[in-house]
Protein backbone atom coordinates (compact mmCIF):
# COMPACT_ATOMS: atom_id res chain seq x y z
CA UNK A 1 0.00 0.00 0.00
CA UNK A 2 1.47 3.36 -1.04
CA UNK A 3 2.11 5.98 1.65
CA UNK A 4 0.87 9.54 1.21
CA UNK A 5 4.44 10.61 0.44
CA UNK A 6 4.73 8.01 -2.33
CA UNK A 7 1.34 8.95 -3.81
CA UNK A 8 2.20 12.63 -3.85
CA UNK A 9 5.64 12.03 -5.34
CA UNK A 10 3.95 10.06 -8.11
CA UNK A 11 1.52 12.93 -8.70
CA UNK A 12 4.35 15.48 -8.98
CA UNK A 13 6.21 13.13 -11.37
CA UNK A 14 3.29 13.51 -13.80
CA UNK A 15 4.18 17.20 -14.24
CA UNK A 16 7.81 17.29 -15.46
CA UNK A 17 9.65 20.49 -14.62
CA UNK A 18 7.22 21.57 -11.90
CA UNK A 19 9.92 21.57 -9.23
CA UNK A 20 12.25 23.56 -11.47
CA UNK A 21 9.94 26.52 -10.81
CA UNK A 22 10.56 26.57 -7.06
CA UNK A 23 12.07 29.81 -5.80
CA UNK A 24 14.52 30.35 -2.96
CA UNK A 25 16.14 33.43 -1.43
CA UNK A 26 18.44 34.17 1.48
CA UNK A 27 18.79 36.73 4.25
CA UNK A 28 22.11 36.50 6.07
CA UNK A 29 22.89 38.52 9.19
CA UNK A 30 26.41 39.41 10.28
CA UNK A 31 27.93 41.85 12.75
CA UNK A 32 30.36 44.53 11.69
CA UNK A 33 33.35 44.43 14.01
CA UNK A 34 36.60 46.30 14.48
CA UNK A 35 39.83 44.66 13.26
CA UNK A 36 40.23 43.27 16.80
CA UNK A 37 36.80 41.63 16.82
CA UNK A 38 34.99 44.17 19.00
CA UNK A 39 31.52 45.34 17.99
CA UNK A 40 31.80 48.21 15.52
CA UNK A 41 30.44 51.38 17.13
CA UNK A 42 30.39 53.27 13.84
CA UNK A 43 27.25 54.21 11.90
CA UNK A 44 26.15 52.13 8.92
CA UNK A 45 28.87 52.71 6.28
CA UNK A 46 28.05 55.43 3.76
CA UNK A 47 29.58 53.24 1.06
CA UNK A 48 26.81 50.68 1.62
CA UNK A 49 24.01 53.13 0.93
CA UNK A 50 20.86 53.63 2.96
CA UNK A 51 19.97 50.84 5.39
CA UNK A 52 16.33 51.92 5.01
CA UNK A 53 16.02 51.58 1.24
CA UNK A 54 18.93 49.56 -0.20
CA UNK A 55 17.53 46.41 -1.87
CA UNK A 56 20.34 44.08 -0.74
CA UNK A 57 22.10 45.56 2.32
CA UNK A 58 20.26 46.70 5.42
CA UNK A 59 20.59 46.33 9.17
CA UNK A 60 18.62 44.15 11.52
CA UNK A 61 18.26 45.00 15.21
CA UNK A 62 21.60 46.51 16.20
CA UNK A 63 23.19 49.25 14.09
CA UNK A 64 26.19 46.98 13.52
CA UNK A 65 24.14 43.92 12.57
CA UNK A 66 24.12 43.87 8.78
CA UNK A 67 21.50 41.91 6.91
CA UNK A 68 22.45 40.83 3.40
CA UNK A 69 19.50 39.99 1.16
CA UNK A 70 19.31 38.18 -2.17
CA UNK A 71 16.49 38.28 -4.65
CA UNK A 72 14.69 35.01 -5.38
CA UNK A 73 16.33 32.38 -7.60
CA UNK A 74 15.16 29.34 -9.52
CA UNK A 75 18.33 27.33 -8.81
CA UNK A 76 20.72 26.78 -5.92
CA UNK A 77 23.71 27.70 -8.08
CA UNK A 78 22.30 31.13 -8.96
CA UNK A 79 21.31 31.68 -5.32
CA UNK A 80 24.85 30.97 -4.10
CA UNK A 81 26.26 33.25 -6.79
CA UNK A 82 24.00 36.02 -5.48
CA UNK A 83 25.07 35.36 -1.89
CA UNK A 84 28.71 35.55 -2.91
CA UNK A 85 28.07 38.77 -4.88
CA UNK A 86 26.39 40.59 -1.99
CA UNK A 87 29.29 39.57 0.28
CA UNK A 88 31.80 41.01 -2.20
CA UNK A 89 29.71 44.17 -2.42
CA UNK A 90 29.60 44.48 1.36
CA UNK A 91 33.28 43.74 1.95
CA UNK A 92 34.17 46.40 -0.61
CA UNK A 93 32.41 49.04 1.48
CA UNK A 94 33.54 47.99 4.98
CA UNK A 95 36.83 49.85 5.11
CA UNK A 96 38.99 48.18 7.76
CA UNK A 97 36.02 46.60 9.53
CA UNK A 98 35.24 42.87 9.46
CA UNK A 99 32.08 40.90 8.82
CA UNK A 100 31.74 38.53 11.79
CA UNK A 101 30.94 35.10 10.35
CA UNK A 102 29.42 33.47 13.44
CA UNK A 103 25.96 33.36 14.96
CA UNK A 104 27.06 34.22 18.49
CA UNK A 105 28.46 37.73 18.68
CA UNK A 106 31.93 39.15 18.95
CA UNK A 107 33.04 41.11 22.03
CA UNK A 108 30.28 43.55 22.91
CA UNK A 109 30.40 46.82 24.83
CA UNK A 110 28.24 47.32 27.91
CA UNK A 111 24.54 46.70 27.39
CA UNK A 112 23.63 50.38 27.37
CA UNK A 113 26.33 51.23 24.81
CA UNK A 114 25.17 48.86 22.06
CA UNK A 115 23.77 51.17 19.34
CA UNK A 116 20.27 50.44 18.03
CA UNK A 117 19.78 50.46 14.26
CA UNK A 118 19.10 53.92 12.85
CA UNK A 119 17.21 54.57 9.62
CA UNK A 120 17.03 58.34 9.45
CA UNK A 121 14.36 60.81 10.49
CA UNK A 122 11.53 59.90 8.13
CA UNK A 123 8.38 58.47 9.65
CA UNK A 124 9.16 55.11 8.03
CA UNK A 125 12.69 55.11 9.42
CA UNK A 126 11.63 56.21 12.89
CA UNK A 127 8.97 53.49 13.05
CA UNK A 128 11.66 50.86 12.43
CA UNK A 129 13.95 52.49 15.00
CA UNK A 130 11.32 52.83 17.74
CA UNK A 131 10.31 49.20 17.22
CA UNK A 132 13.93 48.27 17.95
CA UNK A 133 13.92 50.50 21.03
CA UNK A 134 11.00 48.40 22.19
CA UNK A 135 12.97 45.22 21.58
CA UNK A 136 15.83 46.63 23.65
CA UNK A 137 13.51 47.32 26.58
CA UNK A 138 11.75 43.96 26.30
CA UNK A 139 14.68 41.62 25.61
CA UNK A 140 17.88 43.58 26.12
CA UNK A 141 20.31 44.87 23.51
CA UNK A 142 22.72 41.96 23.84
CA UNK A 143 20.17 39.61 22.28
CA UNK A 144 19.95 41.95 19.30
CA UNK A 145 23.50 41.01 18.30
CA UNK A 146 22.80 37.31 17.63
CA UNK A 147 22.92 36.46 13.92
CA UNK A 148 21.50 33.74 11.70
CA UNK A 149 20.42 32.79 8.21
CA UNK A 150 16.86 32.89 6.91
CA UNK A 151 16.05 30.56 4.01
CA UNK A 152 13.00 31.66 2.03
CA UNK A 153 11.31 29.08 -0.19
CA UNK A 154 8.21 28.80 -2.36
CA UNK A 155 6.65 26.27 -4.68
CA UNK A 156 5.10 27.16 -8.02
CA UNK A 157 1.37 27.82 -7.39
CA UNK A 158 0.50 24.85 -9.64
CA UNK A 159 2.40 22.54 -7.27
CA UNK A 160 -0.44 22.52 -4.74
CA UNK A 161 -3.01 21.59 -7.39
CA UNK A 162 -1.34 18.19 -7.73
CA UNK A 163 -1.90 17.33 -4.06
CA UNK A 164 -5.04 16.12 -2.33
CA UNK A 165 -5.72 19.40 -0.52
CA UNK A 166 -9.07 20.77 0.57
CA UNK A 167 -10.18 24.32 -0.19
CA UNK A 168 -12.61 26.24 -2.35
CA UNK A 169 -9.91 28.12 -4.26
CA UNK A 170 -6.31 27.69 -5.39
CA UNK A 171 -5.33 30.28 -2.77
CA UNK A 172 -6.90 28.40 0.14
CA UNK A 173 -5.46 25.09 -1.07
CA UNK A 174 -1.96 26.59 -1.34
CA UNK A 175 -2.24 28.08 2.15
CA UNK A 176 -3.42 24.74 3.52
CA UNK A 177 -0.43 23.09 1.86
CA UNK A 178 2.04 25.56 3.35
CA UNK A 179 0.50 25.19 6.82
CA UNK A 180 0.77 21.40 6.47
CA UNK A 181 4.44 21.88 5.52
CA UNK A 182 4.94 24.06 8.61
CA UNK A 183 3.50 21.35 10.89
CA UNK A 184 5.96 18.81 9.52
CA UNK A 185 8.77 21.32 9.75
CA UNK A 186 7.96 21.81 13.44
CA UNK A 187 7.97 18.03 13.94
CA UNK A 188 11.32 17.52 12.21
CA UNK A 189 13.25 20.80 12.65
CA UNK A 190 15.32 19.25 15.44
CA UNK A 191 17.15 17.47 12.58
CA UNK A 192 18.25 20.83 11.15
CA UNK A 193 19.72 21.79 14.50
CA UNK A 194 21.70 18.55 14.61
CA UNK A 195 22.96 18.90 11.03
CA UNK A 196 23.56 22.66 10.89
CA UNK A 197 23.79 23.93 14.47
CA UNK A 198 27.17 25.66 14.69
CA UNK A 199 27.08 27.62 17.93
CA UNK A 200 28.00 25.29 20.83
CA UNK A 201 30.18 28.02 22.39
CA UNK A 202 30.01 31.73 23.17
CA UNK A 203 32.08 34.49 24.68
CA UNK A 204 31.70 34.58 28.46
CA UNK A 205 30.95 38.29 28.33
CA UNK A 206 27.71 37.56 26.43
CA UNK A 207 25.92 36.27 29.55
CA UNK A 208 26.69 39.49 31.46
CA UNK A 209 27.57 37.67 34.68
CA UNK A 210 24.24 35.82 34.91
CA UNK A 211 24.10 32.29 36.31
CA UNK A 212 23.70 29.69 33.55
CA UNK A 213 24.16 25.96 33.02
CA UNK A 214 27.12 26.65 30.71
CA UNK A 215 30.56 25.26 31.45
CA UNK A 216 33.94 26.92 31.03
CA UNK A 217 36.00 25.83 28.04
CA UNK A 218 38.63 28.45 28.86
CA UNK A 219 38.74 31.73 30.75
CA UNK A 220 36.90 33.54 27.93
CA UNK A 221 34.65 30.82 26.49
CA UNK A 222 31.51 29.07 27.76
CA UNK A 223 29.92 25.99 26.19
CA UNK A 224 27.77 22.93 26.65
CA UNK A 225 29.55 19.64 25.86
CA UNK A 226 26.85 18.21 23.55
CA UNK A 227 25.19 21.44 22.36
CA UNK A 228 24.52 22.13 18.69
CA UNK A 229 23.10 25.68 18.74
CA UNK A 230 23.20 27.88 21.81
CA UNK A 231 21.78 30.58 19.55
CA UNK A 232 18.49 28.67 19.39
CA UNK A 233 18.46 27.73 23.08
CA UNK A 234 16.79 29.64 25.90
CA UNK A 235 19.85 31.92 25.95
CA UNK A 236 18.34 33.55 22.88
CA UNK A 237 15.08 35.46 22.66
CA UNK A 238 12.91 34.65 25.63
CA UNK A 239 10.64 36.48 28.02
CA UNK A 240 7.55 35.76 30.05
CA UNK A 241 5.23 37.45 27.58
CA UNK A 242 6.26 35.42 24.53
CA UNK A 243 6.22 32.17 26.51
CA UNK A 244 2.43 32.56 26.78
CA UNK A 245 2.00 32.70 23.00
CA UNK A 246 1.28 29.32 21.43
CA UNK A 247 0.73 29.64 17.67
CA UNK A 248 -1.78 27.33 16.02
CA UNK A 249 -0.39 25.45 13.03
CA UNK A 250 -3.57 23.53 12.18
CA UNK A 251 -5.00 26.16 9.83
CA UNK A 252 -4.13 29.65 8.64
CA UNK A 253 -7.21 31.51 10.01
CA UNK A 254 -6.59 30.31 13.58
CA UNK A 255 -2.87 31.07 13.30
CA UNK A 256 -3.64 34.61 12.12
CA UNK A 257 -6.27 35.11 14.83
CA UNK A 258 -3.77 34.21 17.56
CA UNK A 259 -1.14 36.50 16.06
CA UNK A 260 -3.72 39.29 15.83
CA UNK A 261 -4.62 38.85 19.48
CA UNK A 262 -0.93 38.98 20.45
CA UNK A 263 -0.39 42.21 18.50
CA UNK A 264 -3.63 43.76 19.81
CA UNK A 265 -3.62 42.64 23.49
CA UNK A 266 -1.90 44.77 26.16
CA UNK A 267 0.70 43.12 28.41
CA UNK A 268 0.80 44.46 32.01
CA UNK A 269 4.60 44.80 32.23
CA UNK A 270 4.72 46.76 28.98
CA UNK A 271 1.80 48.92 30.10
CA UNK A 272 3.85 49.85 33.16
CA UNK A 273 6.69 50.94 30.84
CA UNK A 274 4.37 53.02 28.67
CA UNK A 275 5.25 54.13 25.16
CA UNK A 276 7.23 57.22 26.19
CA UNK A 277 10.01 58.07 28.62
CA UNK A 278 11.30 61.61 29.08
CA UNK A 279 9.27 62.71 26.10
CA UNK A 280 10.72 60.06 23.72
CA UNK A 281 9.15 56.97 22.21
CA UNK A 282 10.48 53.75 23.77
CA UNK A 283 8.11 51.23 22.13
CA UNK A 284 5.38 51.30 19.51
CA UNK A 285 2.69 50.05 21.88
CA UNK A 286 2.23 48.17 25.14
CA UNK A 287 0.92 44.96 23.59
CA UNK A 288 2.31 41.45 23.90
CA UNK A 289 3.90 42.00 20.48
CA UNK A 290 4.55 45.44 19.00
CA UNK A 291 4.25 44.03 15.47
CA UNK A 292 3.83 40.58 13.94
CA UNK A 293 7.54 40.04 13.27
CA UNK A 294 8.40 40.33 16.95
CA UNK A 295 7.28 36.75 17.48
CA UNK A 296 10.48 34.72 17.48
CA UNK A 297 9.75 31.47 15.64
CA UNK A 298 11.76 28.89 13.71
CA UNK A 299 9.54 29.24 10.62
CA UNK A 300 7.04 31.81 9.39
CA UNK A 301 4.32 31.87 6.73
CA UNK A 302 4.96 34.92 4.55
CA UNK A 303 3.32 37.14 1.95
CA UNK A 304 4.83 40.20 0.26
CA UNK A 305 3.17 43.32 1.66
CA UNK A 306 2.38 46.68 0.12
CA UNK A 307 3.48 49.96 1.69
CA UNK A 308 1.74 50.38 5.02
CA UNK A 309 0.09 46.93 4.80
CA UNK A 310 0.32 44.66 7.84
CA UNK A 311 1.48 41.03 7.41
CA UNK A 312 -1.66 39.65 9.06
CA UNK A 313 -3.84 41.50 6.55
CA UNK A 314 -1.77 40.38 3.56
CA UNK A 315 -1.86 36.73 4.64
CA UNK A 316 -5.57 36.88 5.45
CA UNK A 317 -6.56 38.46 2.14
CA UNK A 318 -4.14 36.77 -0.28
CA UNK A 319 -2.86 33.65 1.50
CA UNK A 320 0.63 32.27 2.05
CA UNK A 321 3.13 33.03 -0.72
CA UNK A 322 6.28 31.44 0.73
CA UNK A 323 7.81 30.25 3.99
CA UNK A 324 10.79 31.66 5.87
CA UNK A 325 13.03 29.20 7.72
CA UNK A 326 14.71 31.08 10.58
CA UNK A 327 16.65 28.51 12.61
CA UNK A 328 19.82 28.07 10.54
CA UNK A 329 23.08 29.07 12.20
CA UNK A 330 25.81 30.78 10.23
CA UNK A 331 28.28 28.11 9.07
CA UNK A 332 31.69 29.29 10.38
CA UNK A 333 33.49 27.01 7.92
CA UNK A 334 31.95 28.69 4.85
CA UNK A 335 33.00 32.20 3.73
CA UNK A 336 29.40 33.20 3.00
CA UNK A 337 28.01 31.34 6.02
CA UNK A 338 26.15 28.71 3.98
CA UNK A 339 27.16 26.04 1.47
CA UNK A 340 25.48 24.77 -1.68
CA UNK A 341 25.15 21.38 0.06
CA UNK A 342 23.09 23.02 2.80
CA UNK A 343 20.85 24.87 0.35
CA UNK A 344 20.15 21.73 -1.69
CA UNK A 345 19.37 19.77 1.46
CA UNK A 346 16.97 22.51 2.55
CA UNK A 347 15.12 22.25 -0.77
CA UNK A 348 14.74 18.47 -0.37
CA UNK A 349 13.81 18.75 3.32
CA UNK A 350 11.09 21.32 2.60
CA UNK A 351 9.73 19.21 -0.26
CA UNK A 352 9.58 16.27 2.14
CA UNK A 353 7.72 18.40 4.69
CA UNK A 354 5.23 19.44 2.00
CA UNK A 355 4.53 15.90 0.73
CA UNK A 356 4.70 13.82 3.91
CA UNK A 357 1.50 13.05 5.80
CA UNK A 358 0.93 15.89 8.29
CA UNK A 359 -1.78 15.23 10.88
CA UNK A 360 -3.11 18.19 12.82
CA UNK A 361 -1.64 18.92 16.21
CA UNK A 362 -3.85 18.81 19.32
CA UNK A 363 -6.82 21.06 19.95
CA UNK A 364 -4.62 24.10 20.60
CA UNK A 365 -2.72 23.56 17.34
CA UNK A 366 0.65 23.57 19.12
CA UNK A 367 2.89 20.55 19.66
CA UNK A 368 4.69 20.63 23.01
CA UNK A 369 6.49 17.38 22.22
CA UNK A 370 8.08 18.93 19.13
CA UNK A 371 9.14 21.99 21.10
CA UNK A 372 10.78 19.76 23.70
CA UNK A 373 12.58 17.68 21.05
CA UNK A 374 13.92 20.86 19.48
CA UNK A 375 15.13 22.18 22.85
CA UNK A 376 16.78 18.85 23.66
CA UNK A 377 18.76 18.81 20.42
CA UNK A 378 19.99 22.40 20.64
CA UNK A 379 21.38 21.70 24.12
CA UNK A 380 22.58 18.09 23.83
CA UNK A 381 22.03 16.93 20.26
CA UNK A 382 25.42 15.20 19.99
CA UNK A 383 25.04 13.22 23.20
CA UNK A 384 25.65 9.52 22.41
CA UNK A 385 22.43 7.50 22.39
CA UNK A 386 20.26 10.62 22.78
CA UNK A 387 16.54 9.82 22.77
CA UNK A 388 13.69 12.03 21.58
CA UNK A 389 9.93 11.46 21.76
CA UNK A 390 7.96 10.42 18.67
CA UNK A 391 4.24 10.36 19.42
CA UNK A 392 5.02 9.86 23.09
CA UNK A 393 7.34 6.91 22.43
CA UNK A 394 11.12 7.16 23.00
CA UNK A 395 13.26 6.89 19.86
CA UNK A 396 16.95 7.48 19.34
CA UNK A 397 17.90 10.61 17.42
CA UNK A 398 19.87 8.53 14.93
CA UNK A 399 17.01 6.07 14.44
CA UNK A 400 14.49 8.82 13.73
CA UNK A 401 16.97 10.63 11.48
CA UNK A 402 17.30 7.47 9.36
CA UNK A 403 13.52 7.37 8.92
CA UNK A 404 13.43 10.99 7.78
CA UNK A 405 16.40 10.59 5.44
CA UNK A 406 14.61 7.73 3.67
CA UNK A 407 11.78 10.10 2.77
CA UNK A 408 14.07 13.00 1.90
CA UNK A 409 16.07 10.76 -0.46
CA UNK A 410 13.00 10.16 -2.61
CA UNK A 411 12.40 13.93 -2.67
CA UNK A 412 16.02 14.68 -3.58
CA UNK A 413 15.83 12.17 -6.43
CA UNK A 414 12.76 13.87 -7.87
CA UNK A 415 14.34 17.32 -7.48
CA UNK A 416 17.38 16.15 -9.44
CA UNK A 417 15.19 14.72 -12.20
CA UNK A 418 12.98 17.79 -12.57
CA UNK A 419 15.61 20.51 -12.13
CA UNK A 420 18.43 18.84 -14.04
CA UNK A 421 20.68 19.44 -11.01
CA UNK A 422 22.58 16.19 -10.30
CA UNK A 423 23.94 17.36 -6.94
CA UNK A 424 20.85 16.94 -4.75
CA UNK A 425 21.68 13.33 -3.87
CA UNK A 426 25.31 14.24 -3.21
CA UNK A 427 24.10 16.95 -0.82
CA UNK A 428 21.89 14.40 0.92
CA UNK A 429 24.78 11.95 1.32
CA UNK A 430 26.94 14.76 2.70
CA UNK A 431 24.39 15.46 5.45
CA UNK A 432 23.63 11.78 6.09
CA UNK A 433 27.29 11.23 6.92
CA UNK A 434 26.77 13.48 9.94
CA UNK A 435 24.16 11.08 11.30
CA UNK A 436 26.64 8.24 10.99
CA UNK A 437 29.54 10.26 12.45
CA UNK A 438 28.80 12.96 15.03
CA UNK A 439 32.28 14.45 14.62
CA UNK A 440 31.29 15.74 11.17
CA UNK A 441 28.62 18.09 12.51
CA UNK A 442 29.53 21.81 12.52
CA UNK A 443 29.06 22.04 16.29
CA UNK A 444 31.50 19.17 16.87
CA UNK A 445 33.97 20.67 14.42
CA UNK A 446 33.86 24.05 16.20
CA UNK A 447 34.59 22.46 19.58
CA UNK A 448 37.32 20.22 18.19
CA UNK A 449 38.98 23.18 16.47
CA UNK A 450 39.03 25.19 19.70
CA UNK A 451 40.46 22.28 21.67
CA UNK A 452 43.09 21.36 19.07
CA UNK A 453 44.33 24.93 18.63
CA UNK A 454 43.84 25.93 22.28
CA UNK A 455 41.86 28.90 21.00
CA UNK A 456 39.09 30.84 22.65
CA UNK A 457 35.85 31.35 20.75
CA UNK A 458 36.85 34.96 20.20
CA UNK A 459 40.25 34.04 18.74
CA UNK A 460 38.68 31.46 16.43
CA UNK A 461 35.93 33.86 15.38
CA UNK A 462 38.37 36.65 14.71
CA UNK A 463 40.68 34.47 12.64
CA UNK A 464 37.92 33.11 10.40
CA UNK A 465 36.20 36.49 10.05
CA UNK A 466 39.47 38.13 8.99
CA UNK A 467 40.12 35.34 6.51
CA UNK A 468 36.66 35.48 4.94
CA UNK A 469 36.41 39.28 4.82
CA UNK A 470 39.80 39.38 3.11
CA UNK A 471 38.63 36.62 0.74
CA UNK A 472 35.73 38.78 -0.46
CA UNK A 473 37.83 41.96 -0.58
CA UNK A 474 40.41 40.22 -2.79
CA UNK A 475 37.69 38.81 -5.04
CA UNK A 476 36.49 42.38 -5.45
CA UNK A 477 34.00 43.75 -7.95
CA UNK A 478 34.20 43.91 -11.70
CA UNK A 479 33.91 47.33 -13.32
CA UNK A 480 30.31 46.58 -14.25
CA UNK A 481 29.48 45.40 -10.72
CA UNK A 482 31.10 48.47 -9.20
CA UNK A 483 29.03 50.72 -11.47
CA UNK A 484 25.89 48.80 -10.54
CA UNK A 485 26.77 49.03 -6.84
CA UNK A 486 27.19 52.79 -7.05
CA UNK A 487 23.88 53.17 -8.87
CA UNK A 488 22.11 51.15 -6.15
CA UNK A 489 23.83 53.17 -3.42
CA UNK A 490 22.83 56.51 -4.93
CA UNK A 491 19.27 55.32 -5.60
CA UNK A 492 18.91 54.15 -1.99
CA UNK A 493 20.15 57.49 -0.64
CA UNK A 494 17.79 59.37 -2.94
CA UNK A 495 14.88 57.17 -1.85
CA UNK A 496 15.64 57.87 1.82
CA UNK A 497 15.85 61.60 1.09
CA UNK A 498 12.40 61.43 -0.51
CA UNK A 499 11.01 59.68 2.56
CA UNK A 500 12.50 62.34 4.80
CA UNK A 501 11.15 65.18 2.65
CA UNK A 502 7.60 63.94 3.24
CA UNK A 503 6.32 65.91 6.24
CA UNK A 504 2.63 65.42 5.46
CA UNK A 505 1.88 63.84 8.85
CA UNK A 506 3.56 63.87 12.25
CA UNK A 507 5.24 60.78 13.60
CA UNK A 508 2.51 60.40 16.22
CA UNK A 509 -0.11 60.40 13.48
CA UNK A 510 1.98 58.00 11.39
CA UNK A 511 2.12 55.53 14.30
CA UNK A 512 -1.63 55.91 14.80
CA UNK A 513 -2.24 55.12 11.12
CA UNK A 514 0.14 52.16 11.33
CA UNK A 515 -1.81 50.66 14.24
CA UNK A 516 -5.13 51.45 12.53
CA UNK A 517 -3.99 49.41 9.52
CA UNK A 518 -4.11 46.27 11.68
CA UNK A 519 -7.29 44.42 10.76
CA UNK A 520 -8.76 41.37 12.39
CA UNK A 521 -8.26 38.41 10.03
CA UNK A 522 -11.25 37.40 7.94
UniProtKB/TrEMBL annotation:
GO MF entries: ATP binding; glutamate-cysteine ligase activity; metal ion binding
One GO cellular component, as annotated: cytosol
SUPFAM superfamilies, per database record: Glutamine synthetase/guanido kinase
Domain Glutamate--cysteine ligase: 15-377
Catalytic activity: L-cysteine + L-glutamate + ATP = gamma-L-glutamyl-L-cysteine + ADP + phosphate + H(+)
Keyword annotations from UniProtKB, A to Z: ATP-binding, Glutathione biosynthesis, Ligase, Nucleotide-binding
Superkingdom of this protein's organism: Bacteria
Class of this enzyme: ligase
EC number: 6.3.2.2
UniProt cross-references to InterPro entries, sorted A to Z: Gln_synth/guanido_kin_cat_dom, Glu_cys_ligase, Glut_cys_ligase
HAMAP family according to UniProt: Glu_cys_ligase
Family: Belongs to the glutamate--cysteine ligase type 1 family. Type 1 subfamily.
Protein's UniProt name: Glutamate--cysteine ligase
Amino acid sequence: MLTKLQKRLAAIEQSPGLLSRCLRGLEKEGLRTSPTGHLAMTPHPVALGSALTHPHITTDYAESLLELITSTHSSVDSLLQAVEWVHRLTADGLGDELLWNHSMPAILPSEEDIPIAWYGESNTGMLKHVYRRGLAHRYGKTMQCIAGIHYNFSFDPDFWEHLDLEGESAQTRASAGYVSLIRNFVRHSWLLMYLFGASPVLNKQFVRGKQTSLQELDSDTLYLPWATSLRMSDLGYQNKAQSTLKPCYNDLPTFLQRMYEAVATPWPEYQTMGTHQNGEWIQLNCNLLQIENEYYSTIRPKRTTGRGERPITALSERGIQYIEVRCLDIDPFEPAGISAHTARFMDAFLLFCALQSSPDFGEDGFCQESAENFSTVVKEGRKPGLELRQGGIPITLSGWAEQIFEGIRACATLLSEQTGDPLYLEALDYQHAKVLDISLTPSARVLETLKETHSSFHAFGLETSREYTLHFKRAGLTEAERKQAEQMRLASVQAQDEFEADRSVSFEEYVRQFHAALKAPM
